[in-house]
Amino acid sequence: VLVKRSFIHQARETIVVADSSKIGAEKHAFLCDIEAVSKIITDSDISEEDRRRFEDSGIEIIVVDTSSSEG
């Protein structure tokens, strides 16, 4: 965890990739404050409230379409 925190501290940009079900969930490990995050990549199930909250904090939200055209 200490090495990961060091990477985050030295990075120009910190991007979080998380399934929308993880947003707002109890955390088991703490790596950084949300202020250190510049972008969040998540699925389209993110709530408008969460999306707005992050965007109002200056965090770019990138929504990925997880629906598949494969059968």
* SSE succession: HEEHE
Strand content: 15-25%
Helix/strand-derived class? Answer: alpha/beta
Give the overall shape.
globular
Please state how the strands of the largest beta sheet are arranged side by side.
1-2-3
Structure summary, number of beta strands: 3
Helix percentage range:
25-40%
Count of alpha and pi helical runs: 2
Largest sheet: 3 strands, parallel
Report how far apart the termini are.
39 Å
Q: Let me know the average pLDDT.
A: 83
| Radius of gyration over C-alpha positions, nearest whole angstrom | 13 Å
- Unreliable stretches (pLDDT < 50, length at least 5) are none
Description:
The chain has 71 residues and is an alpha/beta fold. It has two helices and three strands, in the order αββαβ. The protein has a three-stranded parallel β-sheet, with helices on one face. The longest helix has 9 residues, at 2-10. It is globular and about 40 Å long. 4% of the residues are buried. The model has no long low-confidence stretch (mean pLDDT 83).
